[in-house]
Write a structure and sequence with these properties.
Elements (H helix, E strand, L loop, with lengths): L13 H17 L4 H4 L1 E3 L3 E3 L6 H9 L7 H4 L5 H12 L4 E8 L5 E8 H16 L6 E3 L5 E3 L6 H5 L7 H15 L5 H18 L9 H13 L15 H25 L7
Antiparallel strand pairs: 1-2, 3-4, 5-6
Length: about 270
């Protein structure tokens, strides 16, 4: 790794990640982390139902995809979106076994009866992020169970920073914008909407920008938002630009400007109100 001679120094391909994912799932399944929702097996009684009688049907209803279940029979045919969808689904069904009854006959094993959803999610979170850290593409599992694109180098802190305001209108908009922008499978329209949400927050804060940023800078920010196919759709919009690059630039500019304004208002002892 240090000398650059390792062929996997840039990460593993999807097929390798799928194999490792299958092994992680099998390990957790064997340890009872999915018994509460998917049920367990008893050498005397056979399959014992959990909260979800048919995971295959439940996945079809919630994820709207066929051929994801059972994992052991289908994982090798997953594409990237399939993998991320099943990871997010499993996050909703994982729980750590806490207590139960040992069925010793013929080494049947534990019949778990008490579970901790929160502790199960923590274990799953750690194992999946260790896996995704090996993937050549930059993704991670959030603590709320969503697969998100990891931020570009240098922008980690601005995405992790707590929004410095008690105004829930602002916090909700910013959280929604970040989720839309980073969500796996996000389209250009999703990212454009994320930029639009941040522009709306700036509009909300605009009456308080005086003395925080220069008038020309303020004018330039809203010129971009209003005339470059972000907030409006008409013939006067300028749309002849590389959307991938420009939307990324506009997203981080708007987000950092919001943090600047809010922190300056806090420093001056003012509340962010429209």
């Amino acid at each position: 790794m240090r000398t650059g001679k390792n062929n996997n120094s840039e990460g593993f391909d999807l097929l390798d990640i799928l194999k490792l994912f299958s092994e992680i799932y099998d390990e957790l399944r064997s340890d009872g982390y999915f018994d509460e929702y998917f049920g367990g097996y008893c050498i005397d009684a056979g399959h014992m139902d959990g909260i979800i009688a048919s995971p295959e049907r439940d996945i079809l209803l919630k994820v709207r995809k066929k051929y994801l279940w059972p994992i052991k029979d289908n994982f090798c045919n997953y594409n990237e979106d399939d993998l991320f969808d099943i990871i997010e689904y499993l996050f909703t069904t994982v729980s750590k076994p806490i207590d139960g009854t040992l069925h010793s006959y013929n080494q049947c094993g534990m019949h778990w009866e008490t579970f901790s959803k929160n502790e199960g999610e923590k274990v799953f979170f750690d194992k999946i992020n260790a896996l995704l850290n090996l993937y050549k593409e930059p993704f991670e599992l959030s603590q709320s169970g969503e697969i998100l694109r990891r931020p570009e180098k240098g922008f980690e802190l601005i995405l992790q920073a707590d929004t410095p305001t008690d105004d829930q209108n602002i916090r909700t908009r910013i959280d929604s914008a970040i989720a839309k922008y980073r969500r796996h499978g996000s389209t250009l329209d999703d990212r454009r909407q994320a930029v639009r949400d941040l522009a709306d927050v700036l509009e909300y804060l605009r009456p308080q920008m005086d003395g925080v940023i220069h008038k020309k800078d303020e004018s330039d920010l809203f010129n971009i938002a209003n005339n470059f196919s972000i907030r409006h759709h008409n013939k006067q919009q300028k749309a002849d630009y590389d959307a991938n690059l420009w939307l990324s630039w506009m997203f981080y500019i708007n987000l950092s400007t919001i943090h600047l304004i809010l922190r300056k208002l806090n420093h001056d002892g003012k509340k962010a109100v429209s």
